[in-house]
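lol ok so funny story. i was supposed to be doing the assay writeup but got distracted and ended up predicting the structure for this chain instead. priorities right. anyway since i did it might as well share w the group, maybe its usefull for someone
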Amino acid sequence: MISRTFWLSQSYQECLRAISTGAVKETFVNVPSDEQLMIEVQQGSTDALATLVERHHAPLLAYLYRLLGGRQHLAEDLVQESFLRLLQHGGYQQGRPFKPWLYAIATNLARDYFKSASVRRQVPGEDEDWHSLSECALAALPAL
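and the output, tada:
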């Protein structure tokens, strides 16, 4: 089995040679895809869920952090809520790409947040800047 340090310590030509001889295959053969892991999650595997969370937590947090204008706590809450929805609703269809489905859940949660923020804004006495910020952020979200 080829370790991660192999790739860091070898030249480009040596890495190409390892790939062409098939030495690399054994490293990646046993790595399940996100789609395979999600099927296992639907069957009750907590290990598969842990692997999915490890793979996608940081990138999803970064995505939501940017989408929410740098609100770290809100981004963290929505990441957790995204994974909860993944478990609760069970709407994953086999054969469907996992990552776009997860990001659609997260994006919809962010949209819902901004919609509820704009509804709260209609209560008299709240700050005008918050209303305009939520309207701009809602308009900037991609349509799903």
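DSSP finds eight helices and no strands in the chain. Residues 55 and 110 are 21 Å apart (CA to CA).
back to the writeup now i swear
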